[in-house]
Specification:
InterPro entries: Lambda_DNA-bd_dom_sf (IPR010982)
Mean pLDDT: 87
Structural class: mainly alpha
Distance between the termini: 20 Å
Shape: elongated
Order of helices and strands: HHHHHH
Oligomer: single chain
Number of strands: 0
Number of domains: 2
Radius of gyration: 17 Å
Helix content: 55-70%
GO molecular function, one term: DNA binding
Length: about 110
């Protein structure tokens, strides 16, 4: 489960005040544009987007709490409706879900 935007924002701002890294270098390593890095490190973000996750990874900031994430009943039922019980169907579903990750992330990629 995510720690929450407020906690992550606070940790990123604290990290940013203590680093000597240049935003250009962070950009080269993470692939996040300098303008986005500037916004993120100043706490100017509303969601934990893929760009925020990349910066957190670079800064070695955990975005998840130690609590295990529980699947909702709705998600479990949706998966069970799609899965026919076979190994082939399982592999196809896993592959499809992994391929959808970038599409879903794109929907939240608004810093």
């Amino acid at each position: 489960m995510d720690k929450g935007v407020a906690v992550i924002r606070k940790e990123l701002i604290a990290w940013a005040t203590n680093i000597t890294d240049v935003q250009k270098d962070i950009s080269m390593v993470t692939g996040v544009s300098q303008s986005q890095i500037s916004k993120i490190l100043s706490g100017n973000f509303k969601t934990v987007s893929p760009n925020v996750k990349k910066i957190c990874e670079y800064a070695n900031i955990q975005i998840y709490s130690n609590d295990r994430v529980q699947l909702s009943q709705e998600l479990k039922e949706a998966l069970m409706d799609l899965w026919d019980g076979s190994k082939e169907s399982e592999k196809a579903l896993v592959k499809t879900l992994k391929n959808m990750k970038s599409l879903i992330a794109h929907c939240y990629d608004r810093v």
